[in-house]
Recover the amino acids of this structure.
């Protein structure tokens, strides 16, 4: 962590010389300062040094005339095997698999756009590519450490894909990244009209006796989920987290009904 005192020191001529001695081979220490707004955004940016090694600067602070909170500067991951720069999955020098980084958000992990309306085909393609290279079967002849890392990486990629694959879990995750959590159980603040509608659909589903009736309910619920998904995408794009949270609760209700419909169809009604 770099405090205000140390930050001032770094910007003096002696401080800059000291910084250059601490960072080898021409790597540049660039501090990017952003206001720490009430939404508590953390800013991450990347640059490359003279040799093409990626540098990551994670900056979180509040600028004012009186105070400045701490700034965190994090360099690239270091390979456990050779000590050179390492990517998320493999070392860029010796190509040895690296330990899983469960602090990396799932969008970065799977290299997809950080948007609710992501390209599901690209997401699946990236997932399959990673699993082909990370699967434990590929590391049967490697060291025990590499085998363990393979299992960790493969499990993390699976979890990330399952989360981003479905609209409901993707919305939950995106809101969690913004610090917005959905309460467990029935949302006491939910619109009573929505709760009544959900109860009526559940009652109708419980009373159905034919495949056609179940299919009709399923089609109606899918249409509602499609509409809610479009509204969710719009709300998240606008940064309207309050509306997105309300939509998320409704999506959860109708997704549960959709699962019940699938169970009824599987059981043959």
């Amino acid at each position: 962590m770099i405090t205000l005192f140390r930050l001032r020191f770094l910007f003096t001529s002696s401080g800059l010389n000291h910084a250059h001695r601490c960072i080898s081979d021409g790597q540049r220490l660039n501090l990017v300062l952003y206001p720490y707004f009430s939404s508590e955004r953390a800013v991450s940016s990347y640059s490359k040094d003279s040799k093409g090694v990626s540098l990551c600067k994670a900056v979180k602070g509040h600028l004012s005339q009186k105070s400045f909170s701490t700034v965190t500067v994090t360099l690239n991951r270091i390979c456990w095997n050779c000590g050179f720069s390492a990517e998320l999955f493999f070392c860029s020098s010796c190509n040895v698999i690296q330990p899983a980084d469960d602090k990396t958000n799932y969008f970065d992990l799977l290299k997809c756009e950080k948007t609710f309306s992501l390209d599901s085909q690209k997401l699946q393609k990236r997932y399959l590519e990673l699993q082909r290279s990370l699967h434990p079967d590929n590391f049967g002849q490697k060291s025990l450490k590499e085998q363990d890392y393979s299992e960790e990486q493969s499990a993390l990629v699976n979890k990330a894909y399952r989360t981003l694959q479905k609209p409901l879990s993707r919305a939950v995750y995106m809101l969690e990244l913004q610090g917005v959590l959905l309460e467990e159980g029935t949302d006491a603040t939910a619109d009573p009209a929505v709760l009544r509608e959900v109860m009526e659909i559940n009652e109708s589903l419980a009373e159905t006796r034919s495949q056609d009736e179940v299919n009709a309910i399923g089609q109606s619920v899918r249409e509602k989920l499609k509409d809610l998904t479009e509204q969710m995408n719009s709300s998240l794009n606008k940064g309207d987290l309050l509306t997105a949270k309300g939509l998320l609760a409704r999506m959860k209700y109708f997704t549960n009904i959709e699962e019940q419909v699938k169970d009824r169809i599987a059981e043959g009604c």
